[in-house]
Amino acid sequence: MKTIKRPPGLWTTITLCSLLATGCGYQQYQAHPLVAAHGHVSLRAHDTGDSGFLAYLHEEGYDSRPEQWGWQELMLCTLYFHPDLDVARAQLSRAIAAITTAEQRPNPSVSIAAGRRNEPEVPEVYSLRFNIPIETAGKRQARIDMASNLSESARLNIAQTTWNLRYRLLSSWIEFNAAHQNLTMLKEEVQLRSEIVSMLTLRLQAGMISSVELSNAKLQWQKSQQALVEEQGRIDELKTQLASNVGLPLDKFEQLPLQLHATSQLFEMQRDLDIANLIDTTAQDAALLNRVDIRAGLAAYAASEARLRLEIARQYPDIHLGPSYNYEEGFHIWSLGITSLLNVLHRNQGLIAEAKALRETEAAQFEALQARVIATMDSARSRYRSALLALEQARSLYDTQRTQTEQARLRFEHGFADRLELSTYQLENVLARQRFLAAEYQVQRAAAALEDSMQLPLENLDSLTSSSRRPALHHPFAEEAAS
Question: Which residues contact 418 (CB under 8 A, 6 or more apart)?
Fold first, then answer.
């Protein structure tokens, strides 16, 4: 009786070990269901007394929780609590994960087969085959470059989001302060108009004036009362908007002692800025390079370049090495095969054309973005300059009216003017002050818009022209993303 040859036990052991090795190190799925109610809970949990936020304040140079909250303190709340930054950070994490995916090399594959033959002498047949893919033409590096540039764009998106939140917060803070100032002056106006209506009523009863004069005064009084009611409602709306921009629930925001009218401190220097410096092309070019969306556009274009390079590299097929081992009829058979794709029907022309079109699109969008930014900067500078001129005119008229009101007060004290004349001058003084403050806040709005067009505070404008290096936007989350 013949002894049947069998494959050595070593190969069986290797095969089992390889199968066991492929089953190790896998991650397990963990469900994280999203419930709509959780968002409400998360928002309501935002509190300036939170230990994490207090530690963040300490890192920013605050020894304790601020007693008065101006817009800069509120900006720290925005950076810590606002959910838009969570979205930007999550997008960055996804982009960084894409780099890991791009760096991965294709996994080899293995094929194991076993069978039986009808011949009793050699009934068993075994085979072991491997497939080892080898990428050619620099495809992996092109993928890495594309993912890296998209990651840079996502990192810059955090800075862009931060700046957008800053501008929204500053704008709503200016409007909130302006509304409070306007409300105070509307109360003075209503009080003075009420006194004038009362005095005109007595004069009408005495036959000293016509009813038309009293009717006009009453109409103006009613209009000022209506404006007062509307401004009170507008303040509530602005408070809600401000709380949203800060990232706090309304009930928590209302507990903060706000330091109103602090925005004037931001613009004390801006009124004295030389307009010529704002028109200087060097400052404009530097500010243009400073904008985050410009840098993000460059990163997006670089990503499209890398994608085109990847699609061109895919014209060249990859190589697959196929070493194999077979055991048949008592013989150990080793072989090595090489497999590659034949580019007979096409050479990836479609995807190459798409990548070229994408690159052209990114280039056109970048040029359009630059044109929009330049136009926005020119328009913002013009509005700022016009607002400054209007402010000077309103200041001059207000100074003249104050002088006339003071003269009327002196005439009244010496008996040369009556109460109605004094109240009329006082009302005109209040109206002139309203126009002056409206012009002042218009300057603040224009200055904020000018800052937004350059994405740089105006007090840092000199740093653009004094340094040849491109300035960076400094904020905690951008630095965190960079690290």
Answer: 412
